[in-house]
Every structure is written in C-alpha cells, then in structure tokens.
Amino acid sequence: MRRHLLALSLCLAFASAQAHDKDSDHDDGNDVSHVNGSISVESGHHYGDLDTVNGSISLDQGATAGDVQTVNGSISAEDNVQVKSLSTVNGGVD
After folding, report:
1. What is the pLDDT, as a whole number, of residue 29?
2. Which pTM does this prediction carry?
C-alpha cells in the first residue's frame, strides 16, 4: 500500500512540474518541445523553436516563432504569423 502511495505522489509531483514548465515557455523567445502533447502559440507572443512528437502545433494570428516542426501531428497557422520554417512528418500544414 505504501509503495502505491509513493508512486502516486511521485507521478503527481512530476505532472505539476511539467505543467509549470509549459506555462513558462512563452514570450521570451524560449524553445518549446513536447512529446505526446500539443503546443499553442498565443497571438502577439514571440517563441523560439517549437517541436512536438505525436501532437499538433497551432499558431494564433500575429504570433512569431523560429523553426516549427512536428512528427505525427499537424501545424495550423492563422494570418500574419511569422516563422523561420515549417516542417512535418506524417502530418499536414494548414
């Protein structure tokens, strides 16, 4: 029983650290990288390189980013988005 509680506690601690990391990645030109997760780029913010495996990337109007790459996911971009490059493997670009 104690082993299960310890394992659950560690999982919850790791999950909260991951969530905090995701929130701190915007507006400073920081790179964002996720596995099994999507990335949303907010309007008017500047990001560095964006990459994800098994997730999508969406860029709101007026956002800027460096290289945008995904494997097994799609990339969607609204008007007036500025990026260095877009690439996808087994996905599409909208």
Report:
1. 83
2. 0.70
CB count in 10 Å sphere of residue 47: 23
Per-residue pLDDT tens over the stretch 23-51: 444 556 899 999 999 999 999 899 999 99
Residues in the chain: 94
Q: Report how far apart, in Å, the C-alpha atoms of 57 and of each of 7, 13, 31, 63 are.
A: 32, 26, 13, 12
d(C-alpha 94, C-alpha 91), whole Å: 10
- Any idea what the Cα angle at residue 28 is, between residues 48 and 11, rounded to 5°? 80
Q: Is residue 44 within 8 Å of 61, Cβ to Cβ?
A: no
